Amino acid sequence: METWQQEQAIEVLQQAAAMEVEGVRFYRELAGRTQNPQGRSMFEFLVRDEESHLDKLQAEIKALQGGRCLDPSSFEKEDAPRDRDSFFARAREEILPGMKQEFTDLEALKLALELENRGYAFYEGQAGKATDPMLKGIWHYLRGQEAQHRQLLVNTLTYLGAPLDWFGKEERHIFEGG
Question: What global pTM score does this model have?
Answer without folding.
Answer: 0.68
